[in-house]
Amino acid sequence: MLIVRELMLGPLRFSELAKGVGGAPTDVLTRRLRDLEADGVVQRRELERPATGTVYELTELGDELEGPIMELGRWGLNFY
Asked: Of 4, 13, 55, 71, which residue is least crowded by CB atoms under 10 Å?
Protein backbone atom coordinates (compact mmCIF):
# COMPACT_ATOMS: atom_id res chain seq x y z
CA MET A 1 0.00 0.00 0.00
CA LEU A 2 2.91 2.37 0.69
CA ILE A 3 4.26 1.87 -2.82
CA VAL A 4 0.89 2.66 -4.37
CA ARG A 5 0.51 5.71 -2.11
CA GLU A 6 3.86 7.08 -3.25
CA LEU A 7 3.13 6.42 -6.93
CA MET A 8 -0.22 8.21 -6.69
CA LEU A 9 1.82 11.44 -6.90
CA GLY A 10 3.42 10.37 -10.18
CA PRO A 11 6.24 8.23 -11.59
CA LEU A 12 9.29 7.68 -9.39
CA ARG A 13 12.74 6.20 -9.78
CA PHE A 14 13.60 3.23 -7.57
CA SER A 15 15.74 5.35 -5.22
CA GLU A 16 12.97 7.95 -4.82
CA LEU A 17 10.47 5.21 -4.12
CA ALA A 18 12.77 3.62 -1.53
CA LYS A 19 13.00 6.93 0.35
CA GLY A 20 9.25 7.44 0.16
CA VAL A 21 8.43 4.09 1.73
CA GLY A 22 10.76 4.60 4.65
CA GLY A 23 13.98 3.10 3.35
CA ALA A 24 12.70 -0.44 2.91
CA PRO A 25 15.44 -2.98 2.18
CA THR A 26 16.21 -3.11 -1.54
CA ASP A 27 15.35 -6.79 -1.89
CA VAL A 28 11.96 -6.32 -0.22
CA LEU A 29 11.07 -3.31 -2.36
CA THR A 30 12.20 -5.12 -5.51
CA ARG A 31 10.05 -8.13 -4.64
CA ARG A 32 6.98 -5.96 -3.94
CA LEU A 33 7.42 -4.06 -7.20
CA ARG A 34 7.69 -7.32 -9.15
CA ASP A 35 4.52 -8.61 -7.49
CA LEU A 36 2.67 -5.36 -8.27
CA GLU A 37 3.90 -5.52 -11.87
CA ALA A 38 2.76 -9.13 -12.21
CA ASP A 39 -0.66 -8.14 -10.87
CA GLY A 40 -0.93 -5.25 -13.34
CA VAL A 41 -0.92 -2.50 -10.69
CA VAL A 42 2.51 -0.99 -11.47
CA GLN A 43 4.55 -0.72 -14.66
CA ARG A 44 8.15 0.16 -15.41
CA ARG A 45 8.93 2.75 -18.05
CA GLU A 46 12.20 3.92 -19.55
CA LEU A 47 12.56 7.68 -19.53
CA GLU A 48 12.86 9.45 -22.86
CA ARG A 49 15.98 11.37 -23.77
CA PRO A 50 17.57 13.58 -22.59
CA ALA A 51 16.64 11.92 -19.27
CA THR A 52 17.87 8.43 -18.58
CA GLY A 53 16.77 5.64 -16.31
CA THR A 54 13.66 3.79 -15.33
CA VAL A 55 10.62 4.97 -13.42
CA TYR A 56 7.76 3.08 -11.84
CA GLU A 57 4.21 4.27 -12.29
CA LEU A 58 0.69 3.12 -11.64
CA THR A 59 -1.31 1.46 -14.38
CA GLU A 60 -5.00 2.23 -14.93
CA LEU A 61 -5.77 -0.58 -12.49
CA GLY A 62 -3.39 0.94 -9.95
CA ASP A 63 -5.00 4.36 -10.37
CA GLU A 64 -8.29 2.81 -9.23
CA LEU A 65 -6.76 2.31 -5.77
CA GLU A 66 -6.61 6.06 -5.11
CA GLY A 67 -10.15 6.22 -3.72
CA PRO A 68 -9.80 3.31 -1.28
CA ILE A 69 -6.38 4.52 -0.08
CA MET A 70 -7.68 8.06 0.52
CA GLU A 71 -10.64 6.67 2.46
CA LEU A 72 -8.34 4.55 4.63
CA GLY A 73 -6.27 7.66 5.31
CA ARG A 74 -9.36 9.60 6.36
CA TRP A 75 -10.43 6.74 8.60
CA GLY A 76 -6.96 6.65 10.16
CA LEU A 77 -7.28 10.31 11.17
CA ASN A 78 -9.70 9.12 13.89
CA PHE A 79 -6.70 7.77 15.77
CA TYR A 80 -4.56 10.93 15.87
From this structure: 71
**Residue in 47, 44, 39, 45 with CA at minimum distance from that of residue 65:** 39
Mean pLDDT of 57-68: 97
Nearest Cα residue to 54 out of 30, 35, 38, 32: 30
Of the candidates 14, 20, 7, 23, which has an alpha carbon nearest to the alpha carbon of residue 55?
14
pTM of the model: 0.87
Residue 24, pLDDT > 90, answer: no
- Residue 45 has, within 13 A of its CA and on its CB side, a CA count of 13
